[in-house]
Amino acid sequence: MTSIAWNGIGLVAPSGWEPSAVERDGLLLADADGPVCELKWNRVRGTFSFDKHIGKLTRGNKSAEVRGVDDAETPPAWAGAMARLAEAGLRSKSFLWRADGHRGLGAALHHPGTGLACLVQFFIRREDDEPVAAEILATLRDHTGGKTAPWTLFGLTARVPSDFLLDTFSFRPGHYRVAYWRPASGRNPGRAPLGKGPGAHLDFERFAPASALLKGTTLEDWCRERLAHAPPARVPAENGPGVVSWRGAARTSLLRRSLRREVRTCGRAWLTDAGNALLAVTATGIASLDPSIFNDICGSFALVPEEAA
Questions:
Q1: Between residues 228 and 197, the one the model is more confident about
Q2: Report field, pTM of the whole predicted structure over 0.85
Q3: What is the β-pairing status of strands 116-124 and 141-142?
């Protein structure tokens, strides 16, 4: 089994299930035979309607037959999963769907405390898929209520302060990048576009293979040339065995300091003991991160051991 966490939600899935599509508020998981689970979520304010949320499933597929599942026909394993979700604060309503010769089992979920609204559906190919789906559904959790939130995907894991919002991401061969943004005005993405205006960027990057990338250069020089938010030449770096770190003013002037618009930057890059990878965390913006918080963030960013992936 492997943990998957992304933009506020998480679950535990079989090791053969991998994300085949990643959206800001959505995941499609697949195994060797095709799609197995789809999740879509958002945050809602005010009243929540399970029927309207389930109705979204048929908007893009008019041929789909979707209906709710009553208690009398709910499999015991699925009923147990519903009970475990309720213990975690999630209200739920189950549904069945059929379309184009395929069938599925799913649930609409709502957390009144955080506003999470989630649709999760499993593609059922065989009868023994149903208890597996129930076991996985029971592990689904809303991670937005704490001081930090995890993300665990494609062999990487980290924890992010909850006041940062997921901005952009890319998972390309040799380079994974997940970028967060915290607006200076507070956590309200409706006030300004993500990543724009005063605030702070928090970036996680993974590069591989490190031995090939660093051939003929130093870790510090490579970071200054290749990182998305590379430290400028004016910011000194501290070097140690397999690690480089920095903290200072990326853009400064008397006017910037008087207007409190000085751009601060801090970062750390290091080589992993296993996996031949280079990991880097950078934080850049007018609101710098406290060193202890930044250290905790860097400490949380790691490769997931293969036996746990």
A1: 228
A2: yes
A3: unpaired
